[in-house]
Design brief:
The chain is an alpha/beta fold and 835 residues long. It has 28 helices and 16 strands. The strands form five sheets. It has a five-stranded parallel beta sheet with strand order 6-9-10-5-11, with helices on both faces.
Length: 835
């Protein structure tokens, strides 16, 4: 049986037709709604980098190999553009069909806008919220569908930057999955786009708008904005078209179409007062029509409700407007007051279903964002709660924004004043828990998560400031939501939401004292900054992440951070900063710190060391022109290593030359205290290996000829040092010397004193000398010296232990010269010093 391809057994039946195999329990496959499912990774090409979104250890980034680089993207066909546009529109609310309200008194504005766009001019339509600006833009977009070769592209500027809109325009025209081009490549591609761009709910003007228009010279923009948005710059070619309110007759017409009948005289007077107060905004008449429709439903008789249902008394949508109406039946339900008509949201909400009111509470908690209708049954707890969106849309309490719905203008403030914001924290927590589970489910695509980005970020904005450290067996909800949604935003190429989620997650993890998650968010922020070319910010975020992960001994996360930091160093041309590694941390792929070359043309000397053989000062000069940089900066790092190695070698040669020169110029004077051995030498005197003479090296006492040197004994009765020829004596025999190579204070010959002079202890000094590579070529003298010999001689009888077995020939000749120069002093009567 193949363990990878089990064949029939993989479908529950064994190959021999026996009993079906028992599947493992569901708990072993997934834990709590699929949280233990394998993490989903995504590979993206962004600019010159290949980005691997890793939700576990952190995303990895590297230079994009040529084989991974995508070809030039192709434009969508007309059918593909239609499908893409249909997917970007808000969903149709469920429930019964709502009356269609035709655009009134806007025909002149509609034709004027079409003429300007046909000439290639860009136009900004400015009107207050609720003035019907979005409906007018949709009609004009339909009229301009055949003006440009790339058709009409609809974009939404709510919470979007100019860079975000450029990427949205690119993906609306080109087929480029998992590809986010760099800024220069993006500008090159969108220059070839020729389309009518309908941009609604823009939030910026001035230089940002000029940048957007200048980047697309072949596009004509139809921009919708409110009066509080900054105007275009003075030298821009954008024409301003204001949008005013409706006339009184237009407001009455909207009310009659919303109610489905002719207004009574009292209702017509009430509509006149409303028109004066609202300045003719169409949204206010839509909401007023919903108030009149609810009033008609309340006055319906009980018999009609029992026979035909709750809404049976309402006339069909296509009913004629001249149907007679019984005005006497309206006395029991008065008309709303002018104050209620000016702020109708609380009164309208009070007459809706419980699911609709619960949906409004969630929308208030999420800063006006209405959850998608597919999430309402889980949030509200009602299987039919998705119909609540249709109720809200019919009352004019919500309006479309891009591919979703938000509370209409002024509704959020009205509901907050009515008490719908009292349980904001609880509602936001419920929404965050639901979205955290939903965003991490394997069946949910990154594109669907990006569509709900504003609702998720709104929940984080409410919960993050109040985040506290959770219990030991609990998990912080805002940290979990940000941790789950951030990789989906990155994979879905919604990088504005990615950055917002990472920053919210970093703050929440800091407040919750979750160091591991905080390190992850800082790592992702560094990766995001690196993708955007912000090297200083990327370096700071990555260093913070590496420090936190080093404290946790997270080797895999530290490796990912160091690789990204090495890429930052390569791109900036600087050295990789030294980072303290964790104890026992062995990361083979981590790059080492390298020296930083000084600026071009600056001479950087080593410490000025004068060689005894010459007066040359060793320096290092850096060429003015930088070395060529290949991929990864290999040549630069190789050149730095070579310079450091050569400099270290020259410095070592200079130090050795100095030591040898000092040895040549020194004089072995008989009166030099360093040539005399003290009576009671120190235990550590003359040792250079740290052994303190307790454990002598067996090889240090052997000369080049293989003869072991004698070992001084304790001073005798006359205070002299000598050796014993008796091998059984505790102080006799030829034993290896305890003095290691390089010590001059205890030579094998020792020092003999005349019997006529009292022995005076002479302090001994240990000279430090570097071992020379050449060996002494002079023959080894005898192992012992007679204590009675006092005549000086020109031939040295013992080998100076300052050089030991590694002493050089020049050092030996210098000792002989020094002995001959001082012979007159050393030959005095009664002196028995052996040189």
């Amino acid at each position: 049986m193949d363990p990878i391809n089990p064949g029939p057994e993989g479908y529950g039946q064994d190959g021999d037709g026996s009993t079906p195999r028992q599947r493992p329990p569901r708990e072993s496959l997934t834990n709590d709604f699929g949280q233990s499912a394998p993490a989903r990774t995504a590979r993206l090409v962004t600019g010159d980098f290949l980005l691997t979104v890793n939700p576990v250890d952190g995303s990895e980034i590297e230079p994009c190999p040529p084989a991974e680089r995508p070809a030039r993207p192709e434009k969508r066909t007309a059918a593909e553009r239609t499908d893409h546009e249909r997917a970007a529109r808000p969903p149709v609310p469920p429930g019964p069909a709502q009356p269609e309200l035709h655009l009134l008194e806007r025909q002149d504005d509609r034709e004027h806008l079409v003429r300007l766009l046909a000439r290639g001019r860009s136009v900004r339509l400015t009107g207050p919220s609720g003035s019907g600006r979005t409906a007018l833009l949709d009609l004009v977009a339909d009229d301009c569908s055949d003006l440009a070769p790339d058709g009409v592209v609809r974009l939404n500027g709510f919470h979007r930057t100019p860079e975000d809109l450029l990427h949205d325009l690119f993906h609306a025209v080109y087929k480029a999955p998992a590809h986010r081009p760099g800024h220069d490549e993006l500008l090159e591609l969108i220059r070839d786009i020729g389309a009518v761009v309908v941009l609604d709910d823009i939030e910026f003007g001035g230089a940002g708008l000029d940048e957007l228009i200048d980047a697309t010279p072949e596009c004509a923009f139809l921009i919708g904005a409110t009066p509080d948005v900054p105007a275009p710059s003075a030298d821009s070619a954008v024409e301003e078209v204001p949008l005013s309110g409706l006339e009184r007759a237009g407001g009455v017409d909207i009310l009659e179409r919303a109610v489905g009948r002719v207004l009574t005289e009292e209702e017509a007077n009430w509509a006149g007062d409303l028109w004066f107060e609202s300045e003719g905004l169409p949204l206010r008449f839509v909401q007023a029509g919903a108030l009149l429709r609810q009033r008609d439903q309340l006055r319906a008789s009980t018999d009609a409700v029992d026979e035909f249902g709750v809404f049976a008394s309402e006339l069909p949508v296509d009913a004629p407007l001249d149907v007679p109406f019984d005005a006497e039946a309206t006395d029991e339900v008065p008309l709303p007051s002018l104050g209620e008509a000016a702020a109708p949201a609380p009164l309208l909400a009070a007459r809706l279903s419980a699911s609709a009111r619960a949906t409004l509470r969630f929308a208030v908690a999420l800063a006006g964002e209405v959850p998608h209708q597919a999430h309402l049954p889980a949030l509200v707890g009602d299987t039919h709660a998705d119909a609540a969106l249709g109720e809200l849309a019919a009352c004019g309490l919500v309006s479309p924004v891009g591919s979703r719905y938000r509370l209409a203008a002024g509704v959020l403030q009205q509901l907050e004043a009515a008490g719908y914001a009292d349980d904001t924290a609880a509602q936001a927590l419920t929404a965050a828990q639901h979205y955290a589970w939903w965003a991490g489910h394997p069946s949910v695509t990154p594109e669907r998560v990006c569509a709900e980005a504003d609702a998720l970020l709104a929940a984080l904005a409410v919960l993050v400031p109040a985040t506290v450290a959770p219990a030991e067996d609990e998990e912080s909800t805002p940290v979990r939501l940000a941790r789950t949604a951030a990789p989906a935003f990155a994979a879905g190429l919604h990088w504005g939401a990615w950055e917002a989620a990472l920053r919210a997650g970093a703050e929440a993890s800091r407040l919750a004292a979750e160091v591991r998650e905080q390190a992850y968010f800082h790592h992702e922020l560094g990766i995001l900054a690196l993708c955007g070319g912000q090297l200083d910010r990327a370096r700071a975020e990555l260093e913070a992440s590496i420090g936190l992960r080093g404290a946790l001994s997270d080797k895999r996360g530290t490796t990912a951070g160091r690789r990204a930091l090495a890429l930052v160093a390569d791109l900036s041309g600087e050295a990789l900063p030294a980072i303290a590694a964790t104890a026992g941390d062995e990361i083979p792929d981590a790059r080492h710190e390298e020296s930083v070359s000084p600026a071009g043309g600056v001479t950087t000397p080593f410490p000025a060391v004068h060689s005894p053989f010459s007066d040359t000062v060793v320096t290092r000069r850096v060429p003015e022109e930088p070395a060529p940089v290949e991929s990864g900066g290999g040549l630069v790092r190789m050149a730095r290593r070579n310079l450091v190695a050569v400099g270290a070698g020259v410095l070592l040669t200079a130090v050795l030359g100095t030591v040898v020169g000092l040895g040549m110029t020194s004089h072995d004077n008989a009166d030099d205290p360093s040539n005399n051995v003290s009576v009671n030498p120190s235990a550590s005197e003359g040792t250079g290996d740290g052994s303190l003479g307790a454990d002598p090296k067996q090889s240090s006492g052997t000369s080049d000829t293989g003869t072991a040197t004698s070992r001084p004994t304790d001073p005798g009765a006359d205070g002299t040092l000598g050796t014993s020829d008796d091998p059984t004596s505790p102080t006799g025999g030829a034993t290896p010397s305890d003095t290691p190579t390089g010590t001059k204070g205890s030579s094998s010959g020792g020092t003999t004193h005349s019997p006529s002079k009292s022995p005076t202890p002479t302090p001994s000094h240990s000279k430090s000398a570097s071992a020379s590579p050449s060996k002494s070529s002079s023959p080894s003298p005898s192992d012992s010296v007679s204590p009675s010999s006092s005549a000086p001689t020109d031939t040295p009888s013992t080998t100076n232990s300052a050089s030991g077995p590694a002493s050089s020939a020049p050092a030996a000749s210098s000792s002989s010269a020094a002995a001959s120069e001082g012979s007159s002093e050393s030959a005095s009567a009664g002196s028995g010093t052996i040189i």
